[in-house]
Amino acid sequence: MEQNQNNWLLTSWISNEGASRIFIELKFTLRDCNSLPGGLGTCKETFNVYYFESDDADGRNVKENQYIKIDTIAADESFTELDLGDRVMKLNTEIRDVGPLTKKGFYLAFQDVGACIALVSVRVYYKKCPSVIRNLALFPDTITGADSSQLLEVSGSCVNHSVTDEPPKMHCSAEGEWLVPIGKCMCKAGYEEKNSTCQVCRPGFFKASPQSPSCSKCPPHSYTHEEASTSCLCEEHYFRRESDPPTMACTTPSPISIVKKGKIAKNSISLSWQEPDRPNGIILEYEIKYFEKDQETSYTIIKSKETKITVDGLKPASTYIFQIRARTAAGYGGFSRRFEFETSPVSVAASSDQSQIPIIAVSVTVGVILLAVVIGFLLSGSCCDHGCGWASSLRAVAYPSLIWRCGYSKAKQDPEEEKMHFHNGHIKLPGVRTYIDPHTYEDPNQAVHEFAKEIEASCITIERVIGAGEFGEVCSGRLKLPGKREFPVAIKTLKVGYTEKQRRDFLGEASIMGQFDHPNIIHLEGVVTKSKPVMIVTEYMENGSLDTFLKKNDGQFTVIQLVGMLRGIASGMKYLSDMGYVHRDLAARNILINSNLVCKVSDFGLSRVLEDDPEAAYTTRGGKIPIRWTAPEAIAFRKFTSASDVWSYGIVMWEVVSYGERPYWEMTNQDVIKAVEEGYRLPSPMDCPAALYQLMLDCWQKDRNSRPKFDEIVSMLDKLIRNPSSLKTLVNASSRVSNLLVEHSPLGSGAYRSVGEWLEAIKMGRYTEIFMENGYSSMDAVAQVTLDSNSCKGMNHLVKGGASPTSPCFRMDIRLEGSCADWRRPAL
Ligand code: ACK
User: Fold this and answer.
1) How far is the CA of 602 from the centre of ligand 1 (A)?
2) Dihedrals φ, ψ of 128, to 5°?
3) Annotated catalytic residue 718
4) Which of 242-256, 340-354, 569-583 has the highest mean pLDDT?
5) Structure pTM?
6) Residue 674 to residue 668: CA distance in whole angstroms
7) Active site residue: 414, 585, 613, 645, which one?
8) DSSP tag of 251
9) Do 245 and 209 meet the contact criterion of CB atoms below 8 Å apart?
10) Phi and psi at residue 488, in whole multiples of 5°?
11) Beta-carbon count within 10 A of 775 CB
């Protein structure tokens, strides 16, 4: 109650333990001055807190004024007389921090200048980021910085058996939290990470480098009995090259991949092959296993020290399977895949075997050469310096050829024959270009660069987006190559974020397209692979895809113009089939058309061809097939050939003549498969020349061997174009077959007693009521129905295969439930 109170309470010396910022938590109670009787004048409701820094405990006697004030502390809650009576303690908590501290320790002092106060507890502490293992690095206990916003950068040390190029770092915040880890340690070779430690690889497992994520099982034919192995040893007789990675299996010699056919006779076949490219040692000999096709149980093995052999004692005109393997000190390699070759028939003259083609070709060549020599001799007498370039250059080629050939008595000994080899089962004859499947390249990039020119992105100006492809946008633009005029191009781009497979598939199309050179095949200008986005650049086709173009220009072209389009497509397809390329997705949507109405086949691809076609549907066998365009044998057992392309061509003909109508309209794929399998075919489009419809029906022959070949189709169309009057005979309106003939009706011809029975038989029983309501209550009435041809464009009617387009038939279009119904004619 006295004036001028000044009471001090002092702590003992407190070590700061290296912290430069300390926190002081005070708990206290304080009496409300108003509750004190009388002495308001001297009563205070605050007290002061001070500190004094020193390196040791000798600072107890410092003067008051040497203490540094931390703060004046007031109470949030003060107590009164009443609270005392109730024994209620109103405890206040206040926290203050002090820093930066520079000495080893300090004293705290509390000054009371007249408050009625009870200091219950004083807690002094500092903050630290606790020791932690992060990214295989140990970060120690770290006392936070002096400043409340300071981040301390702390280096971690790699845990046992782990390494790093650069020590990892983390940051300790003033609040004692670890933030922003940078870098990491990796378990060294022979160790893998488990629960933030590096554990040893068990015997049988290895880890070759710190970068490998975990221990791996030894690759095939290798082992390790040690812990912490960094590689596995090859089993006896198995090898790995020094340059091979330790993840690679140990192998015996690798299999032979290419076996070429040499001379074929009626009792013998000559073979040659390439040494395997990874032989694992010197090849001691080759083993040739062969047997007659489908008679695998009785096979013969012969040996050869060379990479060729003539196998004799074979039956004429028989197919044999050959497999070859190599032997080194390491043992035998795997057998090659099976190669199938056929011996000549007994009478070579009567043979149509393809192996005879070179004989004919060489004979013709020799004949031409002889003729050239004779002409050369005749012309050389009167030759002048300027006038005879043709004759003299011809001679220059002809003489050496003649001399070179003199030593050969038989044309079939032409060394050219040695060059004959196989690609995808196609015999590659000299002078005949064959499509090469880019899959046969181990490195798809190599295929692209073999068949496609690399274009610098700076040569391309993209103008606008014209569509969307499976892999990205399709744009139009211009290409300006050095020394050439700028010209318009189409640019397919590969969208960002593509996978390696998407890139491969995308560029696969260029690898295929780049092998073709024909006026009716879309021309590849080149590819951009060295910069992004990856692009395929092709000639620009002003009118876009054929189906859209025809739909937009319904009825606008003369028949000759339509046939001209079809002729172009057939010519492109002939070229492809000659190259041994089967398109598999020939459809009007995959034909492009330019401003001169020249049609070009496009959309080439690998496995993805059908994957990016929205028309392609999955079959029960798991393949994806554009059902409406595909031949039945290709749907049923994936027999894709040029003959199945001919079927699709027939559908394209139908699409063209009907100006982009959808084949089989809205029928489901399942119904299409069933109907075609039962022998039904699309009806003739409106106003279709009979000759064209007949050609379509020919393309849709069930027996694929009976379908015309593309060269026959081209000749046929040429004939029609040369003789336009042949196109005047249309499939006439009354005989335009647009319904199904129920020749195989279970009830027999003319056996229907009622409309209901007929409708049931053709699975349309649900329409009986509608027929009755519309007055078609008897079969006679049904037979009288005539057609309103405009009432229902695109009737769901098919023609029974084999029925000639001129056969008398009946057609009927009726709108049922707002759509065109599938009607079948009773045999009346
Ligand atoms: O019917 P369209 O205009 O023709 O829309 C598609 C779109 O890109 C997606 O494929 C068009 N298109 C594709 N290649 C070419 C090309 N070479 N020239 C012109 N348009 C093309 C196609």
Assistant:
1) 10
2) -145, 155
3) no
4) 569-583
5) 0.47
6) 10
7) 585
8) B
9) no
10) -75, 145
11) 9
